Amino acid sequence: MKCIPAKRSKKLIVLRWLVQRFEPGVRYTEREVNDLIAQSHPDFATLRRELFDAYLIERADGVYWREP
User: Fold this and answer.
1) Hey, what domains does the chain have and what are their CATH numbers?
2) 68 has a pLDDT exceeding 90
């Protein structure tokens, strides 16, 4: 991925593609999430936040997961 789309509809397409890297129900540390996202784009912090804000991943106490 070259850049993060600004348009919400296009951004959601990218986020839905990106969230497929996470196994449903598996718990990930923040570092593991960053590493998975960084494989596609260097701005992992923004994309991690966007995934959470779009309700595609959940988080609590520094642990992230994707609902089944």
Assistant:
1) 8-65 (1.10.10)
2) no
